[in-house]
Design brief:
By secondary structure, the chain is of the alpha+beta class. It contains 10 helices and 11 strands.
Length: 295
């Protein structure tokens, strides 16, 4: 990895960005790819779904986990050569924001990625990263970058079809297993901050579309649109969400998931319907739906 502070080119990018990040980790191929993608995005046909446009551009890239855990201390890590489910979503959203700003500059992409990845848009150590996706949703909603779709009250029972099931957040996986996180393992202060972050979101009730409804028609699930972020709710102890991807309505009229797939080892549009996919994963309960603003 090359550090922004090492080369003159990288230092100029950092100066131009005015980012609050202490350092940025990337390779030159990453910056070149970002500029290339932003240039294509600027030239896309009018009316094309921008979120899906960028998600489709990243199809075929290899799945690799923990691509952010590459430094002894937290830095803004940028890697468009290999992705996991979270970095796929973050990179796509950062590309969308940068395009909406009318920019094709790598430095602006860096600034937007920092806004998305860290609590209230500012990198301030490892614990400032939005580790739980519920934190990610809250932080980016406060910044007016995304909105969570929760449905409308449909009847006297108070259902918000199809968001008819709820989850009470009880996140403590990181604080119970600090040994599984290299930058947390020997940092007592960061661990205390993580516990405080967990406490901040725990006890909140969120709505989701249960797995049993995900095979319904596009008309019945009309609140879910192409390019929406789908956060898969899990019943695994200590976690809120276990996987992420983008909603795609297939030619079969069913909902599919475009995701960085550990199964397929790459970014792929899942050929199975989302309902079929989730039936193969018993711990997956349903999906929360998050929409990038103005897409």
């Amino acid at each position: 990895m090359r550090h922004l502070t090492i080369s003159l080119f990288a230092a100029l990018l950092l100066l131009e960005a005015h980012t609050t990040a202490q350092a940025v980790t990337y390779q030159q191929t990453d910056s070149l790819k970002v500029v290339s993608l932003l240039t294509k995005g600027k030239q896309r046909p009018a009316g094309e779904n921008l979120t899906l446009f960028y998600a489709n551009q990243l199809k075929g890239l290899p799945y690799v986990g923990k691509t952010l855990e590459v430094n002894p201390k937290e830095e803004l890590a940028i890697n468009l050569r290999e992705l996991d489910c979270t970095t796929l979503v973050e990179n796509v959203v950062a590309l969308v924001l940068t395009t909406r700003q009318g920019s094709t500059r790598f430095s602006d992409f860096c600034r937007n990625l920092e806004r998305i990845r860290y609590r209230d848009g500012r990198l301030d150590g490892y614990a400032s990263r939005n580790h739980y996706f519920s934190e990610w949703i809250e932080s980016n909603s406060r910044q007016d970058l995304v909105s969570e779709i929760t449905g409308k009250k449909a009847d006297s029972r108070g259902y918000y079809y199809p968001f008819v099931d709820t989850q009470v957040l009880a996140c403590n996986y990181m604080s119970l297993h600090p040994d599984r996180y290299p930058m947390l393992r020997n940092d007592a202060q960061a661990l205390r901050q993580i516990k405080a972050n967990e406490k901040r979101i725990n006890g909140k009730t969120v709505r989701y579309v249960p797995r049993r409804l995900l095979g319904r028609s596009r008309r019945e699930l009309s609140l879910i649109e192409d390019g929406d972020i789908l956060a898969i709710v899990t019943k695994k102890a200590g976690l809120d969400v276990s996987h992420l991807g983008f909603a795609v309505w297939g030619r079969d009229g069913k909902l599919h998931l475009l995701n960085a797939s550990q199964i397929h080892k790459k970014v792929v549009l899942e050929p199975m319907t989302l309902e079929e996919y989730m039936k193969k994963h018993p711990t997956q309960l349903g999906v929360r739906v998050i929409r990038v603003k103005n897409d």
